[in-house]
Amino acid sequence: MPDLFRFFFFSAIALALMAVVSGCSTATIGDTSYNQGNLSVSLVNAGQPSPAFIQVTAYKIAGFSQSEYTTVSIPVDLAGGPYTLTVPIDLPAGSYKIYIYLIENGERQTAVIRDITV
User: Fold this and answer.
1) Cα(95)–Cα(117) distance, integer angstroms
2) pLDDT greater at residue 79 or residue 21
3) Fewest beta carbons less than 10 Å away: which of 6, 38, 40, 72?
């Protein structure tokens, strides 16, 4: 009976570790700034180079409400290390919540929400 208990105990630990690690991304999204129709997004990829997409959804803030203004998606080749991506997005003057998603193999790997004022 103790051997069966040990088997299930270590199997449960292994499954839990796999569940935790499988959702981790090696890329992180850093600072974001907007200038003349372009959103600059800093990104650090500690993993292997791979193709991906950056999706940016801008929500216009008016009073106590927000409404989706636009969504832009661009293909990127994730290189190793830190770099800055430029996402063309035209935003008129105002306040926005910017949702930035990194998508690899059709799955969202990481996401951030930034507040900007244009």
Assistant:
1) 4
2) 79
3) 6
**Paired strand residues for 29:** 43
CA distance readout (Å), 88 to 63, 66, 81, 84:
26, 21, 22, 13
Which residue in the block uniquely carries the two structure tokens 């216009």? 60
Provide the β-strand partners of residue 81.
Answer: 45
Domains of the chain: residue spans and CATH: 26-117 (2.60.40.10)
What are φ and ψ of residue 61, in 5° steps?
A: -100, 125
Per-residue pLDDT tens for 50-106? 899 999 999 999 988 999 999 999 999 888 888 899 999 999 999 999 999 999 888
User: Above pLDDT 90, what percent of the chain?
Assistant: 53
In angstroms, the CA 62 to CA 18 distance is: 43
Closest CA to 111 of 55, 37, 45: 55
Residue 80: enclosing H or E segment and its boundaries? none
Best CA proximity match to 70, nearest among 83, 60, 61 = 60
